[in-house]
Amino acid sequence: MKVALLTVLIRLPGCRSLKEKRGRLGGLRERYGRNTQVAVCETDHNDDHDLAGFGFVATAVAATVVERILTDIETDLPMRVDGEVVSMRREWLR
Fold first, then answer.
1. Does residue 30 belong to any structural domain of this protein?
2. Residues of the chain with pLDDT > 70: what percent?
3. The pTM is what?
4. How far apart are CA 7 and CA 45, in angstroms?
5. Can you give the residue range of the structural domain that contains 27?
6. Which residue among 8, 18, 34, 78 is least enclosed by CB atoms within 10 Å?
7. Any domain includes 91
8. What integer pLDDT is reported at residue 46 of this predicted model?
9. In this predicted model, what pLDDT tens digit does every residue of 10-50 receive, in sequence order?
10. Residue 56 maps to which CATH number?
């Protein structure tokens, strides 16, 4: 089994409340979590209005499948999020 983590930092310019933040980012879990090979959660900056950290864990039997899943997220996410993707980092887990 191959497992990798994609951590993403998102800046939310002009976001003034946690309620607004949830509204702007709420669809991430639903969109990417539909794939049974992906787990999604907010991992950092939970109490900040204008920053959000998300983790996407992908798992599959083959590393090429995990790579494809994370590449698809990296490509799609900047177009789907109502904010600016500041950074993305992949890490293979044992």
1. yes
2. 100
3. 0.90
4. 12
5. 2-86
6. 34
7. no
8. 82
9. 999 999 999 999 888 878 888 998 999 999 999 999 888 99
10. 3.30.70.1120
